[in-house]
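Q: Got a minute? One more chain.
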Amino acid sequence: MLSFTGSLKVFVALDPIDMRKGFEGLHAAVSEKLKADVRSGALFAFTNKKRTRLKIIYWDKTGLWLMTKRLEKGTFCWPRSVEPQAARISLAPEAFALLTDGIDMHAATMRPWYQRD
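A: Always. Here it is, folded:
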């Protein structure tokens, strides 16, 4: 289980991205599309068009982490921006944890795929 708490900065890309991208492709996407520095210590999250996959890139001062999650069914409830031209939004670590755990933040309900034993 991953824990997203504390002073961690989380940025979510609003537009979907090609999930075939790896370290270099996501590093470039953070720089070019999100206008941010991947080495800032923030966590950057991306999804695909169907909202069934999630990729996270994170710099921990020793190297880059690349984390991936693929849902077996259902979709992530991806946030929206109130600014029409925004490429990213900032989420509190707790809100990002809700997103990855299957909580629909718009309706405050669990997504259909979410199950916990």
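A: Residues 23-32 form the longest helix (10 residues).
Q: Perfect, thanks.
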